[in-house]
Specification:
By secondary structure, the protein is α+β, with helices and mostly antiparallel strands. The chain contains four helices and nine strands, in the order αααβββββαββββ. The strands form three sheets. The protein has a four-stranded antiparallel sheet with strand order 5-4-8-9, with no helix packed on it. The chain has a three-stranded antiparallel sheet with strand order 1-2-7, with no helix packed on it. The protein starts with 10 loop residues before the first helix and ends in a 6-residue tail after the last strand.
Length: 195
Amino acid sequence: MKPPWYESAGLKEWLLLVIVVLLVAVGIKDGRISKASLSNDKDFFDAISKFVSVVAIIIGGSLSYFRFFRGRTFREKMVIIPSAGRVAVSNGNLHWLEVELKNTGSVAVWNYRLRVLAQLHGESEPIQEVHEFVKWPCDAEKREHLIDVGESSYEHALLFVPKDVSAVSFRIMVGIENGTVWTRCVTVGNDTSKC
């Protein structure tokens, strides 16, 4: 749903221009603005004009740099690099998933949440959430987790898959507190005879 002021978003600038024109007209009518007063203070107005021009150029240059050249400045950027494989066990396969979370942004990523869903491709194709991650040491689990700029963090998950499943698709989702979510998928075959 659009906010109530959405329809008048372009109107504000025009209203400001009309107000400035009306103020100048009232100043001319009352005699506060005249040719004589403008010619007496022309050095003052020239200095003000140059100052405003310099400020406008600096602001415009900064905004264009951040908008067009730098991209999402001061935003988190992350690349998810998954590696997956399987190990044959007696009644199925143990699939492993290693996820590298690489921070390519210009700020640190704090307290990310990792969620992995596995879709088993077979007869019924159920989707289940992967809960079996290699655990943090007890004291480290309670601390804040940080991925600094240019650094990576690694997570490792395990999933048992029965032999009647032909493949497993892992959907990896990483989210942070401000609502940004990154997603990546990887599919691994379940047939060990073709290895």
